[in-house]
Amino acid sequence: MEAISYIQSSFSDSNPLPFPTKNHLVTLNTTTPFTLISRASFVRLKHHTPINIHYSKNVTTNVPSSNPCSFAQSYLIKNLNFSSHSALKTSIEARFNTPNKPDLVIDLFKKWGFSNTNLRNIMAKEPWLHSCNPNKRVLPKFQFLLSKGASNTEIIYIVTKTPTFLRRSLDNHIVPTYELLIGYLQSDKETLNCIIRNPLSFCCTRMRTNVKLLVDFGVSDSTIVTLLHKWPSVFSSNNLLREIEELKELGFNPLKSAFSIALLAKLTVRKSHWDDKVNVFKKWGWSDENVVEAFRRQPNCMLASCDKINNVMEFWVNELGMDAMELVKGTNIFGLSLEKRVIPRGFVVQYMLAKGLIDKNASLITPFLITEEMFLKKFVMCFKENDTSYMLKIYQDKMNVQDYKEGSSIKPSLNCD
């Protein structure tokens, strides 16, 4: 092979053979190994009669065959049905030469109900497991979760969803973090539910630090509990300090529930998406100041999608004929179901305005925020029979939001004659 490489480099595009010919043939056979052809020989060949170099039909070379699979790679393919590519990638880090340790690891996992699919996912992400002592590194963590009331199915879910759990120290991370959570959530059941909702946050080394950070900034225990119940991912953020400071500058009170929603919005909505939402609001006539005011009042408006914001605005302005600025003080509406609440109640409110059944200075947002029972009592059933029956019909004909999006005009007539 060295000879061939040298021939190719000697007669390159920049220094070609003078001309090709079939009359001059160099035959390399087993009696003339490639490695014995010296550089000088090639130099002489280069300056003599032009030649073509061919392999003789009876040439044999000692080209090594491709390397066989490593033991680890073969083991993974055979025992866990890894693909060749995944097995090769995992075996580079796994590095075991006998089946003893991986057999013990697999046996332990399977005793706890893990499938081959579960194991492939776990082992691919944590290849160190193949050569660990499972009775020291794995079993105690399973037993800890079991002692807190977790079922085998829940343990399998936590570990498969976030194999990093097995890398965390039982004494230095898992137990202290669990004790911190149960201090707020008050029961093993709620604490396990929190872990199951977001096992990645539980495994995050920043979780305890972030809880302390919130406490230091004066965030109430009830707000921390709300975040743990609904949005535990907040506690794995590496931008928490910056966002807390920004919210305080905007005037959010850490003791109020709105703070937790604002924090969630700031941490989970990417800047590009945030800017897109601001632009949708501005498309309907809001200013930057209006957006900030709306966010201060009801931060959940920034958790709505761009499509949801646009659809609500379109219905409010184009279908109901109302002012988009009304919604600056009522952005809760962006978190409501368009087809089940906003559209049917919106047409009732429109009818009431047309008939003078509601004071024009009254809040137009209130009818959308109250319960259905209260809405019917205050805005439908308390008028004359004709008006009541007509508004009830409007309300009960719940609009299909998809028809609305596609431009179907199923708006009830406001002709009351």
UniProtKB/TrEMBL annotation:
Protein name per the record? Uncharacterized protein LOC101495049
Name its GO BP terms in alphabetical order. DNA-templated transcription termination
* UniProt xrefs under PANTHER family: CGI-12 PROTEIN-RELATED, TRANSCRIPTION TERMINATION FACTOR FAMILY PROTEIN
Domain of life the protein comes from? Eukaryota
**Record-level Gene Ontology MF annotations:** nucleic acid binding
> What family classification does the UniProt entry report for this protein?
Belongs to the mTERF family.
Write out the entry's keywords from A to Z: Transcription, Transcription regulation, Transcription termination, Transit peptide
Q: Which InterPro entries match?
A: MTERF, MTERF_sf
Q: Name one Pfam family in it.
A: mTERF
